């Protein structure tokens, strides 16, 4: 597959910034094996890039990120064990310098703003043209933000709606941790011990969670966490 003039210009810019002997190591977190295989074949024709790892779940991806240094993360949203936007936030807290390009089947209008606000350097639909995929990877691997021409136009015109705020995004980091533990049926006393808090403090956090999310009981918390794939 030949690169167009625009893609060749991007490659030329990239090669001036990065020594030719340096290989960019890319990790893909996507539960579809065909995505990694297709990208690996495509990028091998460009040179300078290596799809060095692919994780099928958020948990597996986090383990690989902690154990191995990466130059770029390509992240899907629809993972089997966690929402990709939530995983993105976790990765950025632990590896703030790691560039993350969201590569998803969902349309830009649905998740692009949420991904960018969470720290992604760009958002790219999986049905993008090869030249656009290459341009996005080139920019993202250098830590530069990439916006597709379509998304850039929408942002300038104000046509892209703001990221939808989900109820759990109203919670503090500690409340979020307590919510996830409650969803697994862990008693308040054990949560308190694990978080080094008093049972009374954990009970207060639980009350705040129920109030902020307009829930009545722990069962609703569990249902919400499972539905939105917020578990670890």
CATH superfamily of the largest domain: Response regulator
Compute the gyration radius: what is it?
A: 20 Å
Order of helices and strands: HEHEHEHEHEHHHHHH
Which descriptor suits the 3D outline? elongated
Q: Strand order, main sheet: write it out.
A: 2-1-3-4-5
CATH architecture of the largest domain: 3-Layer(aba) Sandwich
Biggest sheet statistics? 5 strands, parallel
CATH topology of the largest domain: the name is: Rossmann fold
Oligomeric state of the chains?
single chain
Structural class call reads alpha/beta
CATH class of the largest domain: Alpha Beta
State the low-pLDDT regions, or none: 1-12
What is the number of strand segments? 5
Helical run tally: 11
The CA-CA distance between the termini, in Å, is: 39 Å
Return the average pLDDT rounded to an integer.
Answer: 83
Query: Residue share in helices?
Result: 40-55%
Please describe the topology of this protein.
Layout: H1 5-17, E1 24-29, H2 33-44, E2 49-55, H3 58-67, E3 72-75, H4 84-94, E4 100-104, H5 108-118, E5 122-125, H6 130-141, H7 149-157, H8 173-183, H9 188-195, H10 199-213, H11 218-227
Parallel strand pairs: 1-2, 1-3, 3-4, 4-5
Helix pairs in contact: 1-6, 8-10, 8-11, 9-10
């Amino acid at each position: 597959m030949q690169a167009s003039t625009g893609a060749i210009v991007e490659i030329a810019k990239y090669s001036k910034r990065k020594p030719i002997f340096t290989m960019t190591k890319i990790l893909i977190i996507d539960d579809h094996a065909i995505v990694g295989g297709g990208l690996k074949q495509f990028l091998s024709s460009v040179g300078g890039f290596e799809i060095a790892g692919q994780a099928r779940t958020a948990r597996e991806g986090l383990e690989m990120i902690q154990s191995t240094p990466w130059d770029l993360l390509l992240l899907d949203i629809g993972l089997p064990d966690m929402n990709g936007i939530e995983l993105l936030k976790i990765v950025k807290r632990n590896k703030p310098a790691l560039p993350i390009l969201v590569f998803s089947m969902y349309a830009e209008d649905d998740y692009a703003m949420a991904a960018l606000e969470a720290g992604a350097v760009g958002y790219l639909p999986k049905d993008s043209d090869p030249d656009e995929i290459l341009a996005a990877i080139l920019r993202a691997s250098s830590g530069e933000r990439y916006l597709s021409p379509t998304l850039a136009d929408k942002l300038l015109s104000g046509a892209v709606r703001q990221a939808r705020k989900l109820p759990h995004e109203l919670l503090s980091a500690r409340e979020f941790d307590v919510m996830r533990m409650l969803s697994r049926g862990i008693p308040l006393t054990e949560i308190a011990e694990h978080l080094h808090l008093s049972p009374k403090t954990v009970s207060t956090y639980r009350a705040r969670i129920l109030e902020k999310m307009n829930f009545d009981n722990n069962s609703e918390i569990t249902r919400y966490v499972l539905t939105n794939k917020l578990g670890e």
